[in-house]
Amino acid sequence: MTAPASPLPELADHRVTRLFVLDFGLFHVNAGRTIGIPGFLLETDQGARILIDTGFPDAYVHDPAIAERDGLPRFGQLVDHSHDSTLTGQLARLGLAATDITATILTHSHIDHVGGLPLVAHAPVVMMQAERAEPRPLYFGSARPMDWPDADYRLITAEGPLCHGLTLIPTPGHTIGHLSLLVTLDQTGPVLIAADAINRASEPAEGFPDADDPETARRSAERLFALERDLAAWLLWGHEPTQWPELLKAPAFYA
């Protein structure tokens, strides 16, 4: 079977050379744990900048009442949230602005991943078709305060490459259209960005209680664990409290 074409054919001959971990701050989940909120930025050999997830809305720094209006307290509380924890602030640490982003990959549309999407809507957005089919981003629980921004959405339904060193892996379960990524770097080797397909190391043993569809989430996790084993890959959990402090944060990078 022929592999699907890249959803970004304009980047298909690029090669990923650097992986930056973006630090969108800490969040205390009402379930009783405090987690780091990651995003990622990939640079290619031809100067493209591919953003993976976007953190919370910048507006939550400027006016916390907006977060309350949106229903965030039903999910948890931001911890010492500041401008540095926003998409704008994290890009500034790299000397970049949102307009410098070439494309964005959205792993799923919960609020800690989709909040900054309007800032990068000038560039193509790659995501799963099933997730984009939702009338609004999923945010959290029954809350749907955001609209999808007008953008060039490149929708996928199957596993396949985006460019050299970057493969998109559908991992539904946590949400209907969750997406994980395999990034292959020259020095670091293969890196699996699980996102919330496995949001913490204990989640499989717990039966994926945070997933919309726990059984589908289990099968998606098995796919990622098989890749981890077969490729000797480094698995980055979505929000594992013990792993988060150990990761190099931008402007440091993995190559």
Uncertain runs are none
N-to-C SSE string, H for helix and E for strand: EEEHHEHEHEHEEEEEHHE
Task: Give a short account of the largest sheet.
Answer: 7 strands, mixed
Quote the average pLDDT: 96
CATH topology descriptor: Metallo-beta-lactamase, Chain A
How large is the radius of gyration? 17 Å
Which helices and strands, and how do they pair?
Elements: E1 16-29, E2 33-44, E3 49-52, H1 59-62, H2 64-70, E4 76-79, H3 87-92, E5 103-105, H4 111-114, E6 125-128, H5 129-132, E7 153-156, E8 160-163, E9 166-170, E10 179-185, E11 189-195, H6 203-206, H7 214-231, E12 234-237
Parallel strand pairs: 3-5, 5-6, 6-7, 11-12
Antiparallel strand pairs: 1-2, 1-4, 2-3, 8-9, 9-10, 10-11
Describe the structure.
- This protein has 255 residues and is an alpha/beta fold.
- It has a single domain (15-246), classed as Ribonuclease Z/Hydroxyacylglutathione hydrolase-like (Metallo-beta-lactamase, Chain A), CATH 3.60.15.10.
- It is built from 7 helices and 12 strands.
- Strands 4-1-2-3-5-6-7 form a 7-stranded mixed β-sheet. A 5-stranded mixed β-sheet has the order 8-9-10-11-12, with helices on one face.
- A hairpin with an 8-residue loop joins strand 9 (166-170) and strand 10.
- The longest helix is centred in the last third of the chain and has 18 residues, at 214-231.
- The chain is globular and about 45 Å long.
- The two termini are 32 Å apart.
